[in-house]
Specification:
single chain; about 270 residues; Rossmann fold; Helicase, Ruva Protein, domain 3; seven-stranded mixed beta sheet; two-stranded antiparallel sheet; 11 helices; binds S-adenosylmethionine
Length: about 270
């Protein structure tokens, strides 16, 4: 394949601020990101927002079969060249990842890999974390998620109770997955450089806690962290069964949401679902 910068120049792919485009060109960095999910030889990968295809190249070089969803039609000719160079290994879908029924694209469980605008990435992650798992053992439709976020959002996903960054995203991110920051990425690695630093978060599904619905946990964390400085007895007042669950579990209702560990949120949701 010709160098990425040459492909971008030939197709006139100037980065669009409206689409949150900050491209990565450093092949070694892209290879490191592509190694985070583990061995990708013949594995299915769902890449969201391939842009001109830098990360896509690294994933293909790692042996993956990639399905990529890209919203910017300007990027499609460059991605088509990549697909031609790797026959049968890259499927490109033009569209908005927020509108696509991603699980329906795969027979097995893909690894998800994405370098997205952070707001789109957060919305998709929350959706993937809360999706009703379609498999009988309630395991998710994805094998792992490797997602670039701005550093501050990455910190929120991996935070623990009492951390400054702890909140709804940490509970949703970790209640049935393990989440870690796999690498930090300096802003200067991107073209154009964003204002803030970035980090790649790696999530792997863990066993789903029994007797807890994603819907209840979603409502519970929305209420608890919607007013995070308030005591639970205040923030959970309007939520059916929540205060009774606190009492049953012996959790002091004068505590604030930011002090409640993830396991306790799961326990509260379980009692509410009871
Ligand atoms: N993956 C490339 C890289 O690492 O250089 C591009 C990253 S750039 C930060 C984000 C990409 O996501 C852009 O190509 C943009 O057009 C695409 N994008 C933004 N919103 C999207 C959406 N809702 N659905 C699909 N792609 C989207």
């Amino acid at each position: 394949m010709p160098p990425l910068r040459e492909v971008i120049a030939r197709h006139g792919l100037t980065a669009s601020r409206a689409l949150g485009q900050n491209f990565l060109f450093d092949g070694r960095l892209l290879d490191r990101i592509a190694r985070i999910p583990g061995d990708l030889m013949d594995a299915e990968v769902f890449e969201v927002g391939p842009g001109p295809g830098g990360l896509t190249r690294a994933l293909l070089a790692a042996g993956a079969r990639v399905t990529a969803v890209e919203r910017d039609p300007r990027c499609l000719p460059a991605l088509a060249e990549l697909a031609d160079a790797c026959p049968g290994r890259l499927r490109v879908i033009e569209g908005d990842a927020l509108d696509i029924d991603a699980p329906a694209l795969f027979a097995g469980r893909p690894h998800i890999v994405a370098n997205l605008p952070y707001n789109v990435g957060t919305a998709l992650l929350v959706r993937w974390l809360l999706a009703d798992w379609r498999l009988p053992d309630r395991s998710p439709w994805w094998a792992s998620c490797t997602l670039m976020f701005q550093r501050e959002v990455a910190d929120r996903i991996v935070a623990q109770a009492n951390d400054e960054a702890y909140g709804r995203l940490a509970v949703l991110g970790q209640w049935r997955s393990t989440a870690r920051i796999a690498m930090t990425v300096h802003r200067s690695a991107f073209t154009p450089p964003p204002k803030v630093m970035s980090a790649v978060v790696h999530l792997v599904p863990a066993e789903a806690p029994a007797g807890v619905s994603a819907r209840t946990l979603e409502r519970l964390t929305a209420a608890a962290f919607g007013q995070r400085r308030k005591m639970l007895r205040q923030s959970l007042k309007g939520l059916d069964g929540a205060l009774a669950a606190l009492e049953e579990l012996g959790i002091d209702p004068t505590r604030r949401a930011e002090t409640i560990p993830i396991g306790d949120f799961v326990a509260i949701a379980r009692v509410m679902d009871g």
